[in-house]
From TrEMBL, chains A, B:
Protein name: Phosphopantothenate--cysteine ligase
Single GO MF annotation: ligase activity
Keyword check for Isomerase: no
Family from the record: Belongs to the PPC synthetase family.
The organism of origin for this protein: Bicyclus anynana (Squinting bush brown butterfly)
InterPro entries (UniProt xref): CoaB-like_sf (IPR035929), DNA/pantothenate-metab_flavo_C (IPR007085)
Length: 321, 321
C-alpha cells in the first residue's frame, strides 16, 4: 500500500495543543542564535508513538531510550553549537542522562538540623557529578540548549517542520541530526477507535499504514541549505549499507549514520555519497565509558565545517581551482 | 478467539534472563519480613510491552507512567508494610517520582574549589526535598522496600508468579495491589518475526491474541489467603462499574479499584462484593497536591486489617458470635 503524501498527513493530523508555545520557543531560539552567527543543530531523539485509541491507553512504540541523541547534544554543545534538543517526553536528556532520580538521591547526605537542615552531595560523588553539573549549568546560562518534547509521531512531524522552517534562514550553518526512532507505520486518525479496545470483542487486528517519508520535503523544501544527517538502525547486517545508500540516493541529503541494534554503542558507519567511514570503539574504550557519540559528532562537525566553507551556493559545487 | 491457558503461556514463554537473580531477591525479602511477622504488599506498577519483533525495535505498549503505583508504595511504607515494588523499567519510582534528573540538577549549587569542590542543595529547595529524602533513606535503611523491574508482559508474568509463590507462606498478611497496566493482548512468540519489519514489504498487519487471565490462578492457586486488589481503567464511564463487578464475580478476589483514564488522579471507586465506595478529591485538595493514593491506601489497609483479623481460616467465615 502506498503511503499518503506529507501534505495529506499534515492536513489530516492537527497540530498538538502546545504547538504554538513550542513554536514560539523555537523561533526565539533560532533568531537569537542566527543573529550571533552561531551554528545551530537540531538533534531529534527517542522513539515516537502511534496511538491505537483516541483516548490513548495503547500505542505502538519504537525502541529508543534516547541515549544517542542525549549524548550527542552534549558533544555539539562542546563544539560551540546552539542545540535544539527535540526529544520524546521522558526519554534521556543531555547531562542528566547518567543520573536517574534514584542515583542522585543515593548521592545525597541529609544533615537534619530542623530549620537549618542542609543537604549536600557526598564527597565521593562530587568528582563524578561536578564536571557534568558544571557543563549543564554553563549550557543553560548561555541559553545554548533548548528542549522541546513530543510523544506521538504526528507531534514529532509538526515540531520537525516548524523547526526546519525556522532554521531555513540559518542557511548552511544549520545542521540536522535526525537520531529519533520515528515510526515507519501509523494508524490514520479516522481508523483509530475512540474508546479502549475491549478484549471481550475478541483480539483486535491492527492494520498499519506507511508514514510518508518526510525526509523528501525536508531536504528539498524546508531546509535546502542545511547539512542533513539521518540515521538507519537495522537488525540484519546485510541490509544495513544497502539501505543507508539507497536513502542517500533517494533523498539527496549529506550523510546516513548506519548502525546495528546489537552493536550501536560500539560501532557505526558514516555513509556519505563518497565513502563508508566506520567508527569502532575498542573494548578498552567501551570499558572506560567512552561515548561513541563524541567521535561521531567530531566527524560530523568537521564535515559540516567543510559544507559551510563551501559558502553560499553556487561556489561550493565548483572545483577548488 | 479464545486465549490460551496460563500453563501454556508459561510453557511457551521462557523466563527472562535475570529471572533467577530477581527470584533470589524476592525470596530473601519475603522470608525476612515473614519471619518478623510483617505485612507484605506486592505493588505492581507501570505498563507492559508486547514485542512485535524478536530483536525488538517495535512493540505495543500500555499507557502508564507508574504514578499510581509509585505513590501508593510510599503510603504502604508509611503504614508499616514491607513493599515489593514490581515496576516497568524506567517508570516512576517511590520518592524519586517527583524529582527528575533535571529537576534535581536545578536544585544544586556548585562551589568550585578544585579538590575541595562541594555541591549542596539550594536552601529554598531543602524544605521540599528533605522530607522526601528522609523517608527514602529510612525505607532503604530498614530494608523495607524491594525494587524488581520488568519490561515485556511475559517478564511481568514470570515475576508475578514467583512473587506470589513466595508470598503464599505469608498467608493473610500478604496484600496484592495490582496497579500495573498489563496488556490484554500479545503476539505469541512463534508469530513474532526475527528481524525489524521492513516498510518496503508494505505495511504489516498485526494480529493480536488474548493474554490469559492470570488473576484466576493467582487467586485460586498461587496466593489463596492473600488480600488481592486489582485495578480497572476505562475510558467509557458506562462500562466502568459493570466491568469491575464482573471481574470480582469471575475471579472472587477482594476489591477492584475502578477509575477513568481522564479523572484517575481525582476520583476512584473501590468496588467490593458488598459496596461501591467512591473516593473523590476536592478541587482544593488537588491544587494542594494531595495524592489520592494516600486515601486509597488508607482504606485498603483498613480492609486488609479486617481480612487479617479474621485470622487463619476457618474462623473468619463464621459469624462473629
Amino acid at each position: 500500500m502506498a503511503s499518503g503524501s506529507w501534505e495529506e498527513f499534515f492536513a489530516v493530523h492537527l497540530p498538538p495543543t502546545d504547538f504554538e508555545d513550542n513554536r514560539s520557543l523555537l523561533k526565539e531560539f533560532c533568531e537569537r542564535h542566527d543573529q550571533y552567527g552561531n551554528k545551530i543543530v537540531l538533534v531529534t531523539s527517542g522513539g515516537t508513538t502511534v496511538p491505537l485509541e483516541h483516548n490513548t491507553v495503547r500505542f505502538v512504540d519504537n525502541f529508543s531510550a534516547g541515549t544517542r541523541g542525549a549524548a550527542s547534544a552534549e558533544y555539539f554543545l562542546e563544539h560551540g553549537y546552539a542545540v535544539i534538543f527535540m526529544h520524546r517526553q521522558k526519554s534521556l536528556e543531555p547531562f542528566t542522562r547518567n543520573f536517574t532520580g534514584q542515583k542522585l538521591f543515593d548521592m545525597l547526605d541529609l544533615q537534619d538540623r530542623g530549620p537549618n537542615t542542609t543537604i549536600t552531595v557526598k564527597q565521593d560523588s562530587v568528582f563524578v557529578l561536578a564536571p557534568v553539573l558544571q557543563r549543564y549549568q554553563a549550557a543553560h546560562a548561555a541559553g545554548a540548549l533548548l528542549h522541546v518534547a513530543f510523544t506521538s509521531v504526528s507531534e514529532y512531524f509538526w515540531l520537525l517542520r516548524a523547526a526546519c522552517e525556522l532554521l531555513a534562514r540559518t542557511g548552511p550553518r544549520a545542521l540536522l541530526y535526525l537520531a529519533a526512532a520515528v515510526s515507519d507505520f501509523y494508524v490514520p486518525k479516522d481508523r483509530v477507535p475512540t474508546h479502549k479496545m475491549q478484549s471481550a470483542s475478541g483480539p483486535p487486528v491492527i492494520q498499519l499504514h506507511l508514514v510518508p517519508k518526510m525526509l523528501a520535503p525536508l531536504v528539498n523544501l524546508w531546509v535546502p541549505e542545511a547539512y542533513v544527517v539521518s540515521f538507519k538502525l537495522e537488525t540484519d547486517e546485510n541490509l544495513l549499507i544497502p539501505k543507508a545508500r539507497a536513502a542517500l540516493e533517494k533523498y539527496k541529503h549529506k550523510m546516513v549514520v548506519a548502525n546495528m541494534l546489537q552493536t550501536r554503542h560500539q560501532r557505526v558507519i558514516l555513509v556519505t555519497p563518497d565513502a563508508n567511514q566506520e567508527i569502532v570503539l575498542s573494548r578498552e574504550e567501551v570499558h572506560a565509558g567512552i561515548d561513541i557519540e563524541g567521535v561521531i559528532v567530531s566527524d560530523i562537525v568537521r564535515a559540516h565545517g567543510a559544507h559551510m566553507g563551501c559558502g553560499a551556493p553556487p561556489s561550493c559545487a565548483r572545483s577548488p581551482r
